[in-house]
Prior knowledge:
globular; five-stranded antiparallel sheet; 2 helices
Amino acid sequence: MKRKETTKNSTKKRLFFSFFKKHKALSVCLIIGAASVASFLVVNYGRYVKEIVETYYLRTKNFYFNSDKLTTTGKTYEISPWGGTTDYELHINMNSLLNSLKGTDSQIVYDVSCTCDNTVTCKFSNGNSSERRYINPGSHEDNFNVVVTPKTTSVFDTGDEIEVNVVAESVSPYHEVLSARFVLKVGNYGVGYTIEDQMGRLYLDVLVTNTKDTDPALVTLDIPDLTKVNIDESNDILNNITNSWNGTINGEMDYQVPPQSHNNSYMKKIEFYVQPKSSVLVRYYKRNPNVKYSTMDNVVTFSCLNCDD
């Protein structure tokens, strides 16, 4: 019985190797494919581990180089609609804070640069595509704008996309690189919003865009269900809101809170202005990070007093 089983196994092995001898091209492809997949996993895992180690090292040195839009992984934002005939300003905030109580003790020196498609130009306030900037320990904050200007020879159609890449690289006291990719999508003038989220992430971002030339937009963002998301009260926009309302955890409206006077209850709704040709990012924390929300889910709703003017 054992001899029959041994013979059967030997026959299977001969057939197996015989098949691959006859199909050498397939064998080579399979080997290359397996090697490529393994290499991809090793490289990406290595980058992930390297990023964690570098971030941990910088935090042990009390070095905090952060931004409201730029990230170490290079986040992508879609801005829609953009008229395609006038300048568009990207407002970017940089800070050196871990939280409201702790920040970097020394000045951070950093360089910023921007690149874009050849149908537009992108420049900083100095008129160039790069400049040196500073985050001082007193304010722990710095802000800059990237102005995107269509070239006079460029003609855009609805649906066209323009890509702008912004990089901030700290020079002193430590080195760290943050970046983001902004995709301006050509469409009709107006005011709109998008929800940007990822599965497994602790937060989502709401990006409100005003592509009008002259009119500021009075925008309201509301949380229909406070059991799903809560506003991050470290958002910069909360320093410039015109009104806010708190709510109970079951979603009922509680009371109105005077601007810049937020207490420990849950903030449900905020009202603020978005200036012409600009955008505002508002961050919300998710109660369940394993859910991915989109604009269609209405986890944060949007309204505007003069959006249709």
